[in-house]
């Protein structure tokens, strides 16, 4: 965790995240930093990820605001909220009808527009990973309404919402997910890192501008 000030606000940044595939799908462990941030008094969490584009309008390097998510491991019982519930972090049963705050999304859209940025809005689906998805799996996700896919974020957002932290999320499209096994191309982590690196500065500026205008 890095503590500091940005745009006149106190911020804490995570220099990385714990992925469920790195920790035997122990989602409670992977979301510990979010609970720590709650205990520190954090009210807004801005989360980002690298993701494969499913919606055909998305291109390498695009930014997609997350409007909603499909938490696939969570639906299968791999939720950070299973087990004993500690009431310091919120209720046993949690509504995620407003996982990604509408007001914060509007603020991001306004900031993007002022900076002439093309900003898409869509649904993020989290798969368990670490294998990238087969074309048939990507087609399944497309059918159920996903626009981009990755292996993170949903468990963190679920815990944040349980704690009452408002969330803004965006995906950086680092690759185009394969939809057709006959025309598929290899997805590589090097490509993901490379595109993420190229977009780093633009994405950081965008986040700083949003933070500057936060009124929460
Ligand atoms: O979601 P983040 O952590 O940005 O990373 C994405 O990129 C990695 C795969 O290349 C996976 O960890 C996937 O989730």
UniProtKB/TrEMBL annotation:
Pathway as given in its UniProt record: Purine metabolism; purine nucleoside salvage
UniProt entry keywords in alphabetical sequence: Glycosyltransferase, Transferase
SUPFAM superfamilies, per database record: Purine and uridine phosphorylases (SSF53167)
Transmembrane segments: none
Domain of life: Eukaryota
EC top class, as a word: transferase
GO biological process: nucleoside metabolic process
EC assignment: 2.4.2.1
Family listed: Belongs to the PNP/MTAP phosphorylase family.
Record-given protein name: Purine nucleoside phosphorylase
